[in-house]
């Protein structure tokens, strides 16, 4: 059976790319045709309209699409999660210099960000910060980061959508003052001398729900073998012994616009945060592997709570229950034999 699977070029697409390229899918009787999508909105629409059979997708966007909150309504299921964490907040060199935090500690960085944002808003030229999609953990992490510094996010920040592959160029052109995006694009910006990694997403929200495998709710014919293939591929990706091979695979096949060495550092959680070569290490920066694969309905509920907090969903309805029902640990268990 041939399946067309969409992905956005990010390090956490590793399990689906490995499944397609390293024989894991073929062993399950599947042939995965990978489709590199330029943005989350494009991927969302192509999945909803049937041009894709499955997708590496933002968890909140899968929920929003299924609830009719973003793009064409789609009947979806989430039989597998693909990872946790992986994001970071990167700011321009000029903004970092203005923030001048006392240390790299999160509260100090958030306080410096808030101070500059308030001053800029008072001058009528608010900071412009990029997020990858309104329905994304990135948007929610930015809001929580700002609140950590005591900042009223909506009153002080101009939030714009920038697809992940375009964030570095947007920073280069001065269209944005910073962004929250997944690996490796924060590191690409640092390597280009354009910005400074200010905060890791895993510090703002530990074990933050991230990408999922999303597919049509009626895709039962291939759901079990596809989940099994991607699960096995994800275990391979999480094995440190395969780090070098995986980094080369992602650099060549996923078109991440960065070399294998830089990708390996994102997989290790050993990031260069500025042009002077300062390193910051956090093994939880991007979590792949068996402990991240089983879809957790509580993650869907948490994401809906964030949607409510930022006004995307009205409080008091059944959105949390409907979102939780999309996450199907029963399908995952059936696939992997739990």
Automatic annotation (TrEMBL):
- The answer to whether the entry has keyword Cytoplasm is no
Q: Which PANTHER family match?
A: ALIPHATIC SULFONATES-BINDING PROTEIN-RELATED (PTHR30024), BLL4572 PROTEIN (PTHR30024:SF43)
Q: Which InterPro entries match?
A: NrtA/CpmA_ABC-bd_dom
**Main location as per UniProt:** membrane
**Alphabetical UniProt keywords:** Cell inner membrane, Cell membrane, Membrane, Transport
Native source organism of the sequence: Methylorubrum rhodesianum
Q: What is this protein called?
A: CmpA/NrtA family ABC transporter substrate-binding protein
Keyword Transport, does the record have it? yes
Localization annotation? Endomembrane system
